[in-house]
Amino acid sequence: RNEKIWFASYDKNGDWFLRVLMPKIKRKRRKKKSRYHRGDYISTKTGITYKYRSSWEFKFMEHLDVDSDIISWTYEAVKIPYVSNSKTKKIRNYYPDFLIESKSEGYKLIEIKPFKKILQPKIVKKTIAASDWCRKNNIKFCIITENELKKLGLL
Predict the structure, then answer these.
(1) Spatial contact of 58 and 39, defined as CB atoms under 8 Å apart
(2) Helix, strand, coil proportions of the chain in percent (round to 5)?
(3) SS3 state of residue 36
(4) Which of 42, 48, 93, 145 is a Cys-bridge partner for 115, taking CB atoms 3.0 to 4.6 Å apart?
(5) Rounded distance, CA 18 to CA 78, Å?
(6) Inter-residue long-range contacts of 90-96, CB under 8 Å, 24+ positions, other chains counted
(7) Is the pLDDT assigned to residue 109 strictly greater than 90?
(8) Cα–Cα distance, 155 to 140 (Å, whole number)
(9) Where are the beta strands (DSSP E) in the chain?
(10) Per the confidence metrics, is the pTM higher than 0.85?
């Protein structure tokens, strides 16, 4: 309903006048389309459903399921604390993309990132924290970019 509401009001000089208020009409907002490819992936190797947030992660999940060298893998299962702000010492948690167990290399922690983002300060802090964590736990850490995905034939 668009009913007008009239009421008396005063201006700066103290004179009164009639004012009209129109109720705001609520408009339906369109859902903003994400620029990333998101969805659910059911692993044939583990039988677990994972929520991926990029097409690169999806392609890599498919690759892990068909690779005979991979024994098992998990998605965002490891939580690594890191200092996000050196002034305030704010601690946040970083969840690397994959923890993989392979026959040939043992355990490996993998992050998938575009090459252009690798040197961003936030990513560097996470990478340092993940490298330290991996060193303490005797696990290999690597970042996979679009270059490595192309070499694997995934892009």
Answers:
(1) yes
(2) 25, 35, 40
(3) coil
(4) 145
(5) 64
(6) 94/126, 94/129, 94/130, 96/130, 96/141
(7) yes
(8) 24
(9) 5-10, 16-21, 39-42, 49-52, 70-75, 80-85, 90-94, 98-102, 106-112, 140-144
(10) no
